[in-house]
Amino acid sequence: MAPRPRVRLRARLVAAAATALGMLLTGCSGEPEEDSGTITLQFQSLAWQKESVDANKELVKEWNAAHPDVQVKYVQGSWDSVHDQLLTSFEGGEAPDIIHDASDDLADFAYGGYLADLGELLPERLKSDIPQRSWETATFGDGIYGVPFLQEPRVLIANAKWLKKSGVRIPTPDKPWTWQEFRKVTDELSGDADDGKYGVAWPLKEPVSATLNLSLSTGGKVFHRGADGKVEVRFDAADQVVPKTVHDQVNSDRSASSSTLGMGGSDTLPGFFGGKYAMVPLGFSYRQQIVQQAPDGFDWQVLPAPAGADGLTQGVSPQTLSIAEDSPHKKEAMAFIDFLLQPENMVRLAEGDWMLPTGTEALKDPALHTEKNDWETGTELAEHLRSAPAQSVRGYPEWKDKVATPALQEYYSGAIGMGELRRRLVEDGNLVLARYQR
Amino acid sequence: MRTSKPARAAQYVALAAYLVFLAFPFAWLISTAFKPAKELGSLDPTWIPHNPTLQNFTQAFDEQPLLQAMTNSLLVAVSAALVAVVIATPMAYVMARHRNRLARAATGWVVISQAFPFVLIIIPLFLILKNLHLINSLIGLIMVYVVWALPFALWMLVGYVRAVPPELEEAAAVDGAGKLRTLVSVTAPLLTPGIVATAMFAFITAWNEFFFALVLLKTPEKQTLPVILNRFIGTEGVADLGPLAAAAFLATIPSLVIFALIQKRITGGMLAGAVKH
C-alpha cells in the first residue's frame, strides 16, 4: 500500500528538519588545532561591566596588532562558579593560559600545582611596581601564583546632605573616625525618634570577609600561624572591636538597621537613596551603581572606614592574573600580563572596574586623583590595604561556611552573645582547621 | 457529587491566588526589564515604570551576544529533547510491557542515577569529552544533556506506556494488525501526550542548564543563554539588574511559546478516553 500524501509530507518535513539540524551541527564541533608558527594564548577574563569588558578587549586587540606571532584569544569567564569551572579545566588539561581570578580563590589552585610559580617569570619592572604588601596576597608558601592588579577598600558611602546637616565631623583619610567615634556618630545621625531612619546600614549577607578585613584596623588577625606552620583560630580583644561595634549599633543603640544584616550591598541602595540610612559600608566599586541609580540631585560622598589601633589598615583580596602550570607558553603569557599591566593600561582597567590599581605608577595617574566620584579618597586608602587574613588558610572556606557565617549572623542579630560567638569561632573553628592540617 | 456554590467560589479564589503566586516573579521581571536605572534604585518600587524604557534591552544586546546565545540554546535544547525522546520511547515500551529482571534492574538504575550530583560527574565527563574532541562543542553538550535527561525521561515514559491498556493492542492484534502496525496506529497516538510532556521536560532541562554549559563551552560564539545571562552578574553577586532582567525576559519567551503551542496536545491527549472500564 502506498503511503498517504499527508504521511509523505510529514516524512519530508522530518527529513528536511533533520538535514537542517545536521547542517547546523556540523558548524558546532570542537575547535580546530592551532596553526603552526603562531602561538595562541587563551586569556580568560572575568570582567563583567561594559567599560571593563571593553577595556580588556581593546587591550587584547592592541597586543594582537603589535605581536602577530603571539596572538591572544579573549575568553569570557564569569565570577559565579569560576572556581568549579577552573578546577574542571585544570583537571581536564584544558585550562586557559592566562587566568583572571581573585587572590582569595588561588590557594587551592596554588597548593594543588595547577598554577605556575611566577617568581622567575616576573619582569623586574612589574615586580618593583607592585608593592610587597600586594604581592603577599598572591604568595602561597614560597611561590607567587598571581599578579595582583586591581583592589578595592571597603569605604563608607554617605548621604552628604544628611551628614552636613547633622554637623558631625566629616572624616578624611588623614583624620578618620575611630570605631568608638563612628558608633557615636551613627547614634547621633539616627536621632532619638523611632522614625525608621538609621545612621548606618550594614549589608552583611557575607559577614565573614567584611568582619575579618575591617578587623585588621584594630589589630585583629583571627588566624595565627605557629612556628610549625599550623594555623590556629583565636578571637581576642583586638578581634572583637569591629563585631562588637556592629552588634551594639544594631542591638543597643538601634543606630544600624537590623533588616539589612541579611542583605547584599546592592539591596541597601534603595533605602540609602530613599533617605533611610545615612551611610552604607560598601566596596569602592559600588560607586558605579550609585552613579547609575541615584536620584537626580542626590548628594553622596566616600568616607574612609573607621580606624583602630592599626590605623586604616584593612584586608583585601585583589583581582589577579595567573598562568596555568600546564601552559606551554609561560614566557609569552607573562609578556602579555606585563603589557596588560603597564601603568597606563592598569589605569584603564581600574577605571573600567571602578577599582584601584595595585601598581604604584598607575596610582599616580591624575585620573585617579580627581574629586569626581571621590576617586581621590579611595586612592589615598591604597597604601593601607593588606592581604586578607584568611586567604592562605587551608580549610578557610569550610570554616567560613559552617562555623563563622552562622555564628556571626546570629551574633549580629542579637541571638547569641560575645561568649558564644567566641566559643564557636575558636572551638568549632579549630576542629575544622585541624582536619586540613594533619 | 455536585460541588456547592461556596465551595466552588473558594476553589476559584484558591486557583486565582495560585496563579498570582506563579505569575508574580514573571510580572516583576517584565516590570524591571522596562525600568530605567534610577527607578531600580527606588525605595518605593512600582509595578508600572514611571518612565518605561527599552534602554535595558538595547544595553543587553549591545553588551552580550544574546541572539547567538539564544540560537545555540534553541539548537541544543531542541536536539537534546528530540534525541532523548527517540531513545527513551522504545526503551520505555520494553520496560513497561516486559516486566522481567532486566527491566526491574534498569528501573532501579534509572532511580539511582538521579542521585549523582553535577560536581561528582563533571570531571570524568570533561575528560571523556576531551578524548572525543568534544570540548567547546555543541554536539558534546547535546550528548551530555541527552544522557542527563534520559533517566528521568525514561521513567516518565514508562508511566505513560503503562497507562495505555494492553487490551487495546490485543484488540488490534485480533483485528489482524501486525506488531509494528499496532505500535504505530494504536499505541503511538495514545502515547503522544506522554512523549510531548517528556520532550518538554528534556527541552526545559537543557534550556535552563548552566553548569555543564559553563564548563564545556569556552568561546562566546558557542555559549548558551544561561551562561551569557550569568555575565550580567559580577563580584559579590552584584548584578547589572536592568539588562539582566531584559535578557532574562527574552530568555523565557521561547519556552513559553513552545509550551503554549504544545500544551493542547498534552491536555488533549490526557483527556482522550481510550477504553471503557
From TrEMBL, chain B:
Family annotation (CDD domains): TM_PBP2 (cd06261)
InterPro entries on file: BP-dep_ABC_trans_perm, MetI-like, MetI-like_sf
Transmembrane parts of this sequence: 12-34, 74-96, 108-129, 135-161, 182-207, 241-262
Keyword Iron: no
All residue ranges annotated as the ABC transmembrane type-1 domain in the record: 70-262
Cell location: Cell membrane
Domain of life per record: Bacteria
Primary localization class, coarse: membrane
Keyword terms: Cell membrane, Membrane, Transmembrane, Transmembrane helix, Transport
Entries under PROSITE patterns matching the protein: ABC_TM1
Membrane topology listed for this record: Multi-pass membrane protein
UniProt record similarity statement: Belongs to the binding-protein-dependent transport system permease family.
Protein name: Carbohydrate ABC transporter permease
